[in-house]
């Protein structure tokens, strides 16, 4: 779910295909077909500072910090908003200005995202870059927290060294005194919970597609399978029981499904955001 304004341009074709498929299926959700969305939480990785009006009214927002300045984050704070910044710790996009520096430690193409590569998180150079360079730069902008993506690298490359690499990155980022939310990465998160390490490394998790589903081959959104939904619900219950905050990111839920998700989240004390599309704009 890695979205920046630059990434959105690179993925125009995919988003266009999704829109056409939804329209053809009669499933394009208009304002009259969806319930009034909650504004407690929103993920807007596909916008930049020129689109800041999209953030208005939201309590907690997740942005791509490379597209903003410290003054703009200060303005969000003045409006009463909490601001988290996206930080890709387990993979690297080919359009990032520092891709060439780390191309040698990439490990494979990220499925469904051809412009992204898994990265060797055991590399001391990568760890130092994420914590001391990129992390510090973003922390100095006045962010309230980091939205950490692609701890799923531990699922794809399950070794002690990879687990330790992620742990060291999060431990280092914790030193900035910001909240850390892990997006995905359930294998890593569950191990941290089992070992009692989670509270010292991160403060919450975000999980995508608990109730909705993206079919990349067909270019459509749909309802998540019962099996997947049941797995994610069990996972979120475990996370909640460990004292961590829980956030959900869904895609294209219709009115009926949105009501179901909203009721579930209110019952369990979770926050959720229903994105109109993959670009997260």
Structural description of this entry:
The chain has 281 residues and is α/β, with parallel strands linked by helices. It has a single domain, classed as Aldolase class I (TIM Barrel). It is 39% helix and 23% strand. Strands 1-2-3-7-8-9-12-13 form an 8-stranded parallel sheet. A hairpin with a 2-residue loop joins strand 5 and strand 6 (113-119). Helix 5 packs parallel to helix 7 (160-174). The relative contact order is 0.15.
Topology:
Blueprint: H1 5-10, H2 12-24, E1 41-44, E2 60-63, H3 70-78, E3 82-88, E4 91-93, H4 99-102, E5 106-110, E6 113-119, H5 124-139, E7 145-149, H6 153-156, H7 160-174, E8 179-183, H8 186-194, H9 198-201, E9 204-208, E10 212-215, E11 220-223, H10 226-241, E12 245-251, H11 255-268, E13 271-275
Parallel strand pairs: 1-2, 2-3, 3-7, 7-8, 8-9, 9-12, 12-13
Antiparallel strand pairs: 4-6, 5-6, 10-11
Helix pairs in contact: 5-7
